[in-house]
Write a sequence for this structure.
């Protein structure tokens, strides 16, 4: 039996255009505004994590494995995104060792 995580209520003010877009999204998906907004927030956070991970990898602040971890995606998905964004993939022996260590710790 899985445990249901507690929910928090938040209140935000939206401009009219943004509110209309959320209503349209909700209507097209046939779901409540609450569910639609939750989905849109999740999508936005996924995008933010990916952009952060790509920027950190591009600036050589993190390894490929760490970037994948930040973005909450698999190593292969991260490689695909790096290719998609045209980021140079300089993979050193030290990074390989770090990634192998991280992979073994995940098991």
């Amino acid at each position: 039996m899985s445990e249901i995580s507690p929910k928090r209520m938040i209140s935000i003010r939206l401009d009219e255009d943004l509110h209309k877009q959320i209503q349209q999204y909700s209507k097209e998906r046939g779901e409540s505004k609450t569910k639609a907004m939750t989905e849109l927030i999740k999508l936005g956070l996924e995008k933010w994590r990916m952009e952060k991970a790509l920027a950190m990898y591009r600036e050589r602040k993190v390894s490929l494995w760490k970037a994948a971890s930040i973005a909450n995606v698999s190593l292969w998905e991260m490689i695909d995104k790096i290719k998609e964004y045209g980021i140079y993939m300089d993979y050193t022996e030290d990074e390989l060792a770090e990634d192998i260590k991280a992979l073994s710790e995940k098991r």
Helices lie at 16-29, 33-58, 64-71, 75-84, 93-106. The mean pLDDT is 90.
